[in-house]
Amino acid sequence: MSRRKEIIAAVEELIKDQKDSDFQVTLDMDLRKELEIDSVDLMECIIYLEETYHIDIPDKDIDAMVTVGDMVDYVDKKVSK
Length: 81
Description:
acyl carrier activity; 0% strand; Non-ribosomal Peptide Synthetase Peptidyl Carrier Protein, Chain A; 81 residues; lipid biosynthesis; globular
């Protein structure tokens, strides 16, 4: 499995843990509007991603994550550095 696919799977799993295991996640879904992820749930996702991928995600970068794809792209770029 490619690193990007691994990150997508990890983000999907995080969202499904918060929503429902049968919930269908797509990369273009809006984290706040469509998925209704509040700031606490979002921070849980961020902390998990930071710990799992050994990266630091500054608050200013979190605000720029609008969609699931934005989150995946961000982590993928940080991991590849």
